[in-house]
Amino acid sequence: MNFLSHFYFDRNTPNANIVLGTILPDLLKNANKSWNVHPEKHPELFSNKGLNTLLQGWKRHLQVDLLFHSSEFFNTKMQELKQLFIPILKDSPVRPSFLAHIGVELLLDHLLIEHQKITINSFYDNLEAVKEADLTDFLDRCNINDTELFFKFFNSFKSSRYLLSYQKLENISYALQRICMRLWEQPFTEKNTYDLTSILEFYKIQLEVDFMVIFEEIEFRLT
Question: Which domain of life is it from (predicted)?
C-alpha cells in the first residue's frame, strides 16, 4: 500500500510517532534504496516511549502490507489492471505487472481522498509533530549512517506536500511515470502516456465500486 492508504488505518491515532512509523519503511527506501533495516527484529533497542511508538507504527506497516499483498482483492485488481496495460506496453520496457501493482496502490490513495475517508493535511500535521530527536535516535539504532541524507529527503517530502496532487487523477498517471523513470531511462512514449491516463480513468470507475472492501478487511484483521 502507498502512504495515504497506510495512514487510513491510523488516521485517528493521537500519537504522531505511530503515524510516521506506519510510512517510515517506505520513506527510508525512497531516500536510499540500499537501506534495508529490520528494527522489528530487535525490539529491545527501542524500549523508550518515543522509539517504541515509532516501532509500533513500523510493525503496523509490515502487517498491513502483508495482509494487502496476500489478499484476493489485491491480486484480482492487479491482474485486471495488468490486462489493460499489456496492449499499450508492448513497445515499452516497463513490465505490465509492475505498473499494475503500483497503479492499484496509487488509485486506492486517490479514491480515499475523493471519498473523504482521510484528510491529507492531517497526515502532514502528524509528520510535522514528530520530534526530530526521536526520529534521529530511531535511525541511529537502525544503523542508518547518513541521517543527514534522510532528513533532507524527509523535510522535502513534508514541505512539498506532494500527496495533495493525488486529488487529481492525471497526477496519478504522472506519479507512475516518475516511478518508472527511476528504473528505465525512457519508459513511455507520448502515446503511452496518453493511453496510461485513459486506462486509469477507465479502471478507476471499476475499482471505485468496492475499493473500501480491502480497507475494511484489513482493519478487521489488524491486531
Answer: Bacteria
Residue of 67, 69, 112, 114 whose CA lies nearest to 212: 112
C-alpha cell of residue 36: 534495508
- Radius of gyration of the chain from its Cα atoms, rounded to whole angstroms: 18
Number of domains in the chain: 1
What spatial distance separates the first Cα and last Cα of the chain, rounded to whole Å? 18
Cα atoms in the 13 Å half-sphere on the side-chain side of 63: 19
d(CA 223, CA 116): 25
pLDDT digits (tens, 9 = 90+) for 12-42: 999 999 999 999 999 999 999 999 999 999 9
Do 5 and 108 meet the contact criterion of CB atoms below 8 Å apart? yes
Cα–Cα dist 90/33, whole Å: 28
Domain ranges, residue 128: 3-221
